[in-house]
Design a protein that fits this description.
Largest sheet of chain B: 5 strands, mixed
Number of domains of chain A: 3
Shape of chain A: elongated
CATH topology of chain B: Methylamine Dehydrogenase, Chain H
CATH topology of the largest domain in chain A: Glutaredoxin
Structural class of chain B: mainly beta
Largest sheet of chain A: 8 strands, mixed
Strand content of chain B: 35-45%
Number of helices of chain B: 5
CATH architecture of chain B: 7 Propeller
CATH class of the largest domain in chain A: Alpha Beta
CATH architecture of the largest domain in chain A: 3-Layer(aba) Sandwich
Oligomer: heterodimer
Helix content of chain A: 25-40%
Distance between the termini of chain B: 16 Å
Amino acid sequence: MPPAPGSYALPPIQPAADGAVIDADGTPRRLFDYLGDRDILLSFVYTRCTDTEGCPLATGVLEMVREGLAKDPELAAMVRLVTLSFDPERDSPGAMRRYALHAGGIDPGTRWNERPWVFLTTASRARLQPILDGYGQSVVRELDAAGRPTGDFTHVLKVFLIDRRKRVRNIYSTSFLHPAIALNDLKTLALEEVDPRALGRVRHPPRGLPPVPLPADDPPTIPKLRLGRKLFLDRRLSRNGTLSCAMCHVPEQGFAVNETRTAVGFEGRTLRRNAPTLLNVAYAAPFFHDGREPALEMQPFDVFLNPDEMAAPSLGALVETVRSLPDYAPLFEAAFRAQPGVEAIGRSIAAYLRTLLSANSPFDRWRFGKDGAALGAAAQRGFALFTGRGRCASCHRIGDDAALFTDHQFHDTGVAWFAAETRRTETGPVTVQLAPGVTAPLSRAAVDSVGGPAANDLGRYEATGDPADRFRIKTPTLRNVALTAPYMHDGSLSTLREVVEFYDRGARPHEGLDPILKPLDLREGEVDDLVTFLESLTGDNIDELVRDARSEAVGNP
Amino acid sequence: MRHILMPIFRGLKTGTRVRERMTRGAAIFAAVLFAAGPAVAVADETCMSPYMAKITSQEDFVYVWTLGTKGVGDESDKLVTIDARPGSKTYGKVVNTLSVGGRNEAHHAGFTDDRRYLWASGLDTSKIFVFDVATDPARPRLHKTIADFVAKTGGVVGPHSLYALPGRMLMTGLSNDKDHGGRTALVEYGNQGAYIATHWMPTAADPRGAAIEKVADGYGYDARVLPRRNVMLTSSFTGWSNYMMDFGKMLQDPEAMKRFGQTVVVWDLHARKPLKVLDVPGSPLEIRFAWGARHNYAFTSSALTSKLWLIHEDSPNVWKAQAVADIADPSKVPLPVDISLSADDKSLWVDTFMDGMARLFDVSDPFHPKQVYEKKIGAQLNMVSQSWDGARVYFTSSLLANWDKKGQDDEQFLKAYAWDGKELTEKFAVDFYAEKLGRPHIMHFGAYSLYGKTGIAAGK
């Protein structure tokens, strides 16, 4: 068994070589016309070869690779097989066409650049030789006793794995040219190819997620999401070059911030609310904890322009900033055939954010994949509590075919109310951790002497002005919740256990409190079961989403 | 008379005097030092690189890297020059201000080895402002601005200590451009302003060959060297998210409080290789190597746990960290922020921010420091700088823009004292709010004689 795809590295060996070739239709092209958009397996053959450890083996292995690809359409769309003759005298385009039909039953009717396997030759030995030299493929004509060419060639069989950046990543010879190895190497390269995979996620969300709501007139494309990702990571878009979207939605921290209760804003300004995860944000409308923004395309501008967040001086200034950065013009051209503008900025960031889909968690495999072994007994008990006596699922909803763990509504759970009610009356010392295992009770006066006043959070009311919405906060998804501590809209609870214990106690009664929030009287062990269930909601592709985000460099002044 | 002692430092092994250039006065002073043996103290004023020219007598100016403050003057960071010459008509007065435009979280600064340029950094924007202090020591000018530090260094945020190595500046980072946490690196730039290298701090995941006593957080703060032992020490603070955050809010944020440095790293100075990650919890900040030729130790103070730590060479090439004294009452979290070791290694000033106190410790037995003096300087207190001879001690008030006290206690001052060995006597004070300057942070001394000039010749 070859090692698992992605579990090993394929360091670049050498750059791929270009040269003038002729395709099986007789059209002159460059070898590089077939490289760059897909990962390539390139074999050198001559059609008259009869050496069973030579050309027929290479072609036979590529056939098996093609059969393997047929079972993995996503991978197949990222791969091209290329067979190039090193016998230009005899292997005419017609000979290559016949070889193609014989070898793999390839339909020569498809467009030249859409063929999954292309067969090429060259116009002359003079045209061929630089290509052979470029790859280090030695080919020697066999001569008979009289010194005349026999028509056969002595050569070492080599097949080249070439990535989209036209770099040779592996070279196979007879001894280890095995289809399983080649397929795994192709999968390993495909894992590096984050863009097509991201697009694939949007079109086919992981198990447990419903179809992604997409704007009808704005289909996701690779150039759009690539542009959006770059904008997402660009600190130059903040007023003083310090903050980007990703500084408060850190990929390695669940696309949220684990290291502070609430993220820290422009010049260190205090932000009231915990940075929500962007995992599965495609389904999270309306946006922000108070739901003030209905459109994912518009949501980033709130942050760009917020004087406490990225603090761009104005919308026009933001666009001017993007226009002034020379690396952006070609990306906007590729994505929208336009210069940088407000609409394109919003659409591209939204396109990227919609690819941050993560599910197929143990829970999903158990519930939607019908894999009874995917979820442990404790998590199953937790699920029973979650949907039963715990009443969690009344707001964090689970459907028959998919689950978003939210009702998209706003509720007063008592957290915002409690903070607003008690803040003025707190007088006791604050227990401060000074070092691991070392704490000190710091007097309230000392804390207040170095702290600004805390602001209340009226929740949904701030967006609607409706008194009924006071202290109501949007129900967040619980997917990947194990990755997004601390919890609640203000980050006031550090662990999932504290969250479960909070709901177990029930909120202090007050006007507006959601009536569902009554003490649960959980028994010993039931808190553990609920926590275990919540921990089973972590998607199986988090590493990939982080790798995807980090495929783009951080933009710095 | 001005006494200037250019660096008399010893080669890594030979102990050779590499170069010296002295004025008359300095020659006399140096002769006294030499008489004490080859153990030439490269003294402090208060804590300069051993590779740097020193002012060994009366300083002419105090340069104060000052944080711009909303609602105060032009609200911009600026380099403030204060006349420190007793008898001068402008003694104790601001004689020059140079705004750099914008707020960058002005914090630390350091001279190049030739002391012609003062490099001053911003912890927020990671910009570095290089001031020419040689052409006219009374009126520094902005020579160069390095605005692409983060891009050049591969993602280091928050250049903090700026420390002269021969021909280059060593800088410690505090954070990074990926998560604004504490993971960071050391950076080197040439004196001309060209980027040279980034050395990431060792972590558990990537120890870079270092032995780890307990944890390796990868955090940074200060860097100091002891060339004759080929040793560099670095300490550890916290990342951008914490040092930019409202202090009171942070104290109440248990997640944030988990993200403070717990390490001092011992490095092979010449190879820039981390050798050992010492366990020093509570966020060790400023590092001060002793000067004595056989004094193979340094002090640091842990800000949160309020302890003095001794980092010492326990046996040849084996460095250990040991807590040797409490600073005030640690349970009240007085927050020691700056320390300054005297030239004779006998006494150590310690400033604590929360109570605004300066404390003097007798550290002649480095394993048993004893507090011998204390004085309240103001409602809050941060940096301390003493003259070469310890006779003058300067204090400033500001810690960080969002950590400074709020309301009435937000006093922003530079205060100059005389120290006679028994008592601090105030000589002058500058109210940085009344002068519409902002918040004073680090202080460095300037002198005409460093550059073969006199104030009289310069018409000052």
